[in-house]
């Protein structure tokens, strides 16, 4: 017996609905892969679950944006609104501007100049001269700053040397004063020591008087 026909309607049981979604999703992606390989077709499938989880498949030999672009051209339907078209145009403009800047940078480095005409070389030469002048001005500014710092260091060194010299003189003066003080004290103390060590008079022998 074959399976009974399933009524196509929303499955109320959440568990059964999730199981059915997983099986059918896998079946659809499998069929898309098979038709892509068997028939050399460009296929893209994008599936979003009720929870917002995305599953997708795209033919390995192409890309989803390419398929969407082909769909838009063949169906006549616009997939992007005016805002997205404006954003895409801005991206293209920035990309083109970046490419031009890369070319100009190579020219300033002296690369890829053979394809340029003499008139096209003049702006490059002027830009290089302006850049060279800016570099020299910056070098001069740095050199002046270094000279200024060097002068400040020399003045600071002179001040420190002078302070050290004064401190040495002060220390030498203190030592001299101490030496003079010791000499003066010794000169005052010498007579006292002489008197103290004088020989005392001989006391009479008391036994002789007896």
Task: Give an overview in words.
With 210 residues, this protein is mainly α. Helices cover 69% and strands 5% of the residues. Among the domains are: 10-79, Transcription factor, MADS-box (SRF-like), CATH 3.40.1810.10; 139-193. Strands 1-2 form a two-stranded antiparallel ribbon. The mean pLDDT is 81.
Q: Strand-residue fraction?
A: under 5%
Number of helices: 4
Largest sheet: 2 strands, antiparallel
Order of SSEs: HEEHHH
CATH class placement of one domain: Alpha Beta
From the spread of the alpha carbons, the general shape counts as elongated
Helix amount: 55-70%
Unreliable runs = none
Question: Could you give the order of strands across the largest sheet?
Answer: 1-2
Question: How many strands appear in the DSSP assignment?
Answer: 2
Q: How would you name the CATH homologous superfamily of one domain?
A: Transcription factor, MADS-box
- What value does the Rg take, in angstroms? 53 Å
Brief summary:
The chain has helices spanning 14-39, 64-75, 82-108, 118-196, and strands at residues 44-48, 54-58.
Write the layout of secondary structure elements.
Elements: H1 14-39, E1 44-48, E2 54-58, H2 64-75, H3 82-108, H4 118-196
Antiparallel strand pairs: 1-2
Give descriptors for this structure:
single chain, 210 residues, mainly alpha, SRF-like, two-stranded antiparallel ribbon, 4 helices, 2 strands, elongated
